[in-house]
Each structure stands twice: as C-alpha cells, then as structure tokens.
C-alpha cells in the first residue's frame, strides 16, 4: 500500500515538474515587475523572473538562469547577449517607452504637473542617476544641463546615484526633495506614488526604450514565438504596460506634460 501511494506521489510530482518545465520563462529588468506580473496572472504558459540588467546578463551567460524571452530597460543587455550568441538578433525590437518624471513626496511641489518650482528655483535638493550608466541618467543629464533647468543654486544639494532605484530611495525616504525616475517606477495600476510629479515632455530628451528579445527557443519554439508576439503586439498586453506607467511607442505625446519656459 505504501509503495502504491509513493508511486502515485512520484507520478504527480513528475507531472507537475513537466508542466512547470513546459512554461516559457520571461526574464525582465525590475521596472517591468508590475506590468508583467499582471500579464502572467492571466496566463498559464509563462514564468516570470526579475533582476537588474547586470544580474540577468551574468545569470544567462553562466547558464544559471534559463530565459526564453528577455525584456530589458536598455539595448545594452540584449546586444551583449547577441554578441555572445545567446540571443537572436532579428528578434530584438523596441517594446515600449518609459516617460521620465521629476518626482517628489511633497504633494504641492509639482501640483498638477506645474513647473513653477523649477522656474522659480524652489528646489531644495535634487537626485539624478549618473549619465553614463543608464538611459534614465542620460535623459536626466539632457534636462539638467539646460539653462531653463537651473541647478547652480543647489549644487551642494545635487546628489548623483548609480541608478534610478537609488534616486527613488532618496526621494521616498525624503532625504532628498525631488529626483528624476522613469514613470513605471512610481506607478501602481494607473496610480502614481504619493507626492507630486512633472512628466518631462518626451522631445526634451532621448527616448527611454525597453526592448524585447528571444534568448532561447531551443524547446517549444512555436510557443515561445507566439508568446513573444503576444507580449509585443497584443492589445491587452500593451494596455497592461500603459496601466503601469509605460507608453505605447505610437503615442503622440506624454499625458499631463507641462512645458518648461525657455527650454530649447
């Protein structure tokens, strides 16, 4: 009797493992967590895993993480994988755009997207991501380097972070008054985090694009391609991205944007 029960349990475990192995592994940088988790909750054919771009590259390169589809917050990661023959070059395409926002925990600082605090030099401290490390850092530099965005009066209160998560932490803890981050980082199901923000007009800076790439389709080729197409083109998937702060590539302009006087 015991052997029969053990045999049945073994069959169940093997069946469960086979079902788990049959799922497609979608790996993404952490900013995609909310949007992809919502998509995965409505499907039974995908697993999700989230990490920084650096960690994803190391895990995929060392065969520590099996990823069939990759969504990255810049083009650097998929290009590295393509060069090492670990991703398909033809599948690397832009997926969505991430709007850039200047965010503060103070609900009145950028009330209704107002830029008065910038023009009137009311900022007390500012956090920005380093220019050379991420697209958010590069886009931020394009803003703060303009005379229309004065920072000389707070040069001793201008904090440079390694990445936007560090900027977020500085502002969230209220150690810094405001900071530039991508909108998905402070958006939860179509609602912004506490505070106020200015959506930077997208023609003020280079696009912050997310890319989708097929990394490994050695198994379940058709299923992987089908999910890749779904994540890239399906209306419900695109709506999920927008719900959590991303922007459709075909969108004409950012919602709620205000022009900054004198910005060229």
UniProtKB/TrEMBL annotation:
Record organism: Anaerobiospirillum thomasii
Name of the protein described by the UniProt record: Molybdate transporter periplasmic protein
Residues annotated as signal peptide: 1-20
Molecular function as annotated in GO: metal ion binding; molybdate ion binding
Stated family: Belongs to the bacterial solute-binding protein ModA family.
NCBIfam families documented for this protein: modA
InterPro entries: ModA, ModA/WtpA
Keywords, sorted A to Z: Metal-binding, Signal
An individual GO BP term: molybdate ion transport
